[in-house]
Amino acid sequence: MDFRVLKCSIRFALVFSLLVVFHGCALAVRTPAYPVPQREFSAKGPWRGVFHVHTEFSHDSKASLQKVIATGRRAGLDFVVVTDHNTLEGKKAYREGAFPRSPLLVFGNEISSSDGHLIALGPETEPPAGLSDSQALIRWIHENKGYAVLAHPVCRKNPWRSLDKISGYDGLEIYNFSHSFYPVYHPAHAAKVAALAPGFFLKSFQKKPEENLALWDEKLGQAQVAGFGANDAHIHLQFLGMTPENYFLWFQSVTTYVLAGELEEHAIMEALGEGRSFTAFEAFGPARDFIFEAVEDSPEAEQYGPGEVLEFKEKAVLRVKAPEEARIRVLRDGNVLREETARELLCET
After folding, report:
1. One pLDDT digit (tens) per residue for the chain, 349 residues
2. Cα separation, 157 vs 12, whole angstroms
């Protein structure tokens, strides 16, 4: 055997042993990665939840609906968006079963299309058998009063193909925890998993998804496209009730805040599809008090929030408020309009 091949095989075996057998602190230690924020109820939210979770109704997950609800409750969530592969059977079981409605489970469908995985939010039925063309599926989702979201469009595993030829979708994932986690098989990554507790691991591992954000910025120049932070949570293996994966860590990896009028399935779906939401890595701090709005410089002085379209003749003031002092950047077409380290930033357009 070639020495380089043998060396590579030994290296892979060591990394595999750390990731799959030992599992390290970040996976074995099931303590919270950060303190769970207390749930705060108001008439209009914002509602705190996670997007892109798989249950036992997916071919690659063994998480029961009870497990999803219990984990969501432990994480202090208002809602969980379940997106099982090519099925809505979980939605049927949830509606027919006597499950708690806290947190609320909202069901989409991660459909395997000809070019990549496409999440359908809203349709009450599964697509017709044999329909796999990406563009045709997007049309079908819209005809069924839904929103089409590209799952993990840029990643090492299952990326989208022919992105330049696909149009008309309503959103794309700008971050996917699983697809940033699983494909990286190198010793430095394995060492972080083995040596760091969950909170330190997330802070060390999670980086700004530059390539995804560049794609989102490009698409926003062509049409209104919502951005999604995806957990992509699975339980791949389970033995005697024990799982190697830290499902709770996945739920804490990235948080989605939704600005909806009420905590109800249709309202959450609509707000997500229209971009009335924001994404946060809360291992770095709670994000509930984040505000981004535009105020038109006119006698009426109307306010506009995320996902809303502002057409104005006069100037408008953009206001960004962070939960704590942070580096705030306001971008337009990829260019920085204003940048400050502050708790609040005002920027004239």
Report:
1. 455 445 545 554 554 454 444 444 687 777 899 999 887 666 667 999 999 999 999 999 999 999 999 999 999 999 999 999 999 999 999 999 999 999 999 999 999 999 999 999 999 999 999 999 999 999 999 999 999 999 999 988 888 998 999 999 999 999 999 998 766 556 677 677 778 899 999 999 899 999 999 999 999 989 999 999 999 999 998 887 778 789 999 999 999 999 999 999 999 999 999 999 999 999 999 999 999 999 877 766 678 999 988 777 678 899 999 999 999 999 888 889 999 999 999 998 7
2. 18
Q: Which amino acid is at 170?
A: D
Nearest to 253 by CA among 39, 58, 27, 94: 27
Residues with Cβ within 8 Å of 254's Cβ and at least 6 positions away in sequence, in order, are 50, 175, 177, 206, 229, 230, 231, 279, 280, 281
Q: Report yes or no: 158 and 150 within 8 Å, Cβ to Cβ.
A: no
58, two tokens: 């997916």
The answer to whether 49 and 83 have CB atoms below 8 angstroms apart is no
Pairing of strands 316-332, 291-296: antiparallel
Q: Both ends of the chain: CA-CA distance in Å? A: 64
Measured distance CA(9)–CA(292) in Å, rounded: 50
Buried b (16+ CB within 10 A) or exposed e, 48-68: bbbbbbbbbbbeebbbbbebb
Q: What angle do CA 212, 157, 7 make, to 5 degrees?
A: 120
Amino acid symbol at 79: F
Identify the H or E element spanning 102: none
**C-alpha–C-alpha distance, residues 344 and 340, integer Å:** 9
CA geometry: angle at 331 spanning 325 and 332, to 5°? Answer: 160
